């Protein structure tokens, strides 16, 4: 079957003399035909997405929104006393209501909770922490949340969060 040109694994097209003779007679190469077909195809596709009879309209340019002129307040962490540089990752301190470093809050939660072997304190999102137990500490796929610790109240958002949300979501 290796010598069979009509079937099997031979995927080449059979040679056609008439195609070659036709190109020589017309004086055009096959690449010229392909080039002109591509140009017609691009014109047809661009017209396909326009409604019939519609004129091409320039879209207005995007103008970036100017940020608010009021600068953000730099808060000091009530736990460690250092300034908070990344205010977007800060959490509300329960005692004062001011922003606190995420790591400082995590340390406070870890100090107040009793953990067993294989337990880890993790941030669950939405202002909540949890004590997560891993059966195999090397495999993070199998875990169980033993306790959920509500740190921030979802219904009463802090005033400093509203100012930050207004500053960053101007668009």
Structural account:
The relative contact order is 0.10. The chain has two domains: 50 residues, no CATH class; 82 residues, no CATH class. It is built from four helices and five strands; from the N terminus they run ααββαβββα. With 171 residues, it is α+β, with helices and mostly antiparallel strands. Helix content is 29%, strand content 15%.
Strand % is: 15-25%
**Radius of gyration of CA atoms, rounded to a whole number:** 34 Å
Terminal residue distance: 69 Å
If helices are DSSP runs of H or I spanning 4 or more residues, what is the number of helices?
4
**Weakly predicted, low-confidence segments:** 21-25
Order of helices and strands: HHEEHEEEH
**Main beta sheet strand tally, sense and closure:** 3 strands, antiparallel
The helicity comes to 25-40%
Shape: flat
Strand order, largest beta sheet: 3-4-5
The overall average pLDDT, rounded, is 77
